[in-house]
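Case study 2.
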Amino acid sequence: MKGKSAVAVSVLLCLAVAWIVCPVPLSRAGEVPPEIGAVIDYDGMKKYPQDAGARDDYVAQQKAAYLQVRDYHDPEVPPQVLACVREKAAQGFPANYTAQKFFIDTQVRDWRYLRVYSMPSVPVGEIERVKKEAATEFPDDFSTQKLIVETKVEAIIHQ
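Prediction:
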């Protein structure tokens, strides 16, 4: 029986990831689809089997985060960038919607930062070269790009 429940959970997790990456309107706005809700409820039971209060908080946070991730959009971020970030979030944190939301928020924040980053004491051409190198090395990881750009620009300043 354990093998069947593990397979069922795996199938539900795969469906959850698929709905995050390619959302399909299976429920009304503001509602978590039953399949996703079941996965979240099951995960809450595993994490907090003896603490109903903590379990209820966890489930509520996960469901709220699921809706935020599902409905997330930002008109300033190109759709292909946002799709890539969402896909990495779903792959990196399957069925952990609070982690997915944090990842998406952080990546979008750092994408915006990189768009306007400048340092008055460093020529614009140098900064653009460093940004391009970072984007080539880590094309879909804006947080790592930000770290590399800041580190290399600091090195240029202190040469």
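Residues 2-116 form one domain.
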